[in-house]
């Protein structure tokens, strides 16, 4: 059975993994921090890692993509999106106003993952503007800390599965600023994995480093894709971290690497003097409304 490193039980990452695998047996191995999730597979402790790479409202994209580029060599094997529905979670009854409602003025501190916290900015400003905000490694870590500190006026932002995992209460549900809040996840690891879902297409993620002092280099790189009618879904520049002002271009092409035209485009880009690294060529999956089965 394949082992998959993921953030702790009750996180969005955990629920997203359960959704992707659709009840197919796999062994989730929980790690407290996303850096430990990456390292687990890089060190061979697990077969795959679940990495959140982009969010509709507040992307964790840069830091996590930088890890895939600079810190570990783990090919991307699948990509899928999953909704992030955040709630305000507390110890049962702690903020009850005695009339069946919630007394938000009693909230002294709100804990969550920084991305989840940022997704709920409007709610926090309007309901608990004076609360101290503390960021932790994941939404479920926030829920666990709140559980262990009853009576102090602390609340967590997390998903329903997080509240259930620790037996806490949702005191305000669906508090994200925008209801269409999705996170894009990547499964990274050395080998391909059979996924029990129907993919909606394929992507190849390519990292291109331009030669220095070559006017129009980016234009020529993009032309190599354009005249072959290769569809791009992302182009993003990231610092090489080697020299100030030098960048990689992270380009996602909506085509598998084994297609006829993509290898030719890559050869053309190399012939321009660019360095090309393939971060992965993988199936992509969309979200279909259904609840992940919790194992
Ligand atoms: O803390 C969690 O629940 C996570 O799965 C992490 C994470 C992220 O890193 O972006 C994933 C999705 C949520 O939107 C918020 C946080």
Automatic annotation (TrEMBL):
It catalyses: prephenate + H(+) = 3-phenylpyruvate + CO2 + H2O. It is an enzyme of class 4 (lyase). Its EC number is 4.2.1.51. The keyword Repeat does not apply. The record marks 183 as: Essential for prephenate dehydratase activity. InterPro entries: ACT-like_dom_sf, ACT_dom, Chor_mutase/pphenate_deHydtase, Preph_deHydtase, Preph_deHydtase_CS. The keyword Lyase applies. Keywords: Amino-acid biosynthesis, Aromatic amino acid biosynthesis, Lyase, Phenylalanine biosynthesis. It comes from the Bacteria. One of its GO terms (biological process) is L-phenylalanine biosynthetic process. Residues 206-283 form the ACT domain. Residues 2-190 form the Prephenate dehydratase domain. GO terms for molecular function: prephenate dehydratase activity. Pathway: Amino-acid biosynthesis; L-phenylalanine biosynthesis; phenylpyruvate from prephenate: step 1/1. One of its GO terms (cellular component) is cytoplasm. This is Prephenate dehydratase. It comes from Paenibacillus sabinae T27.
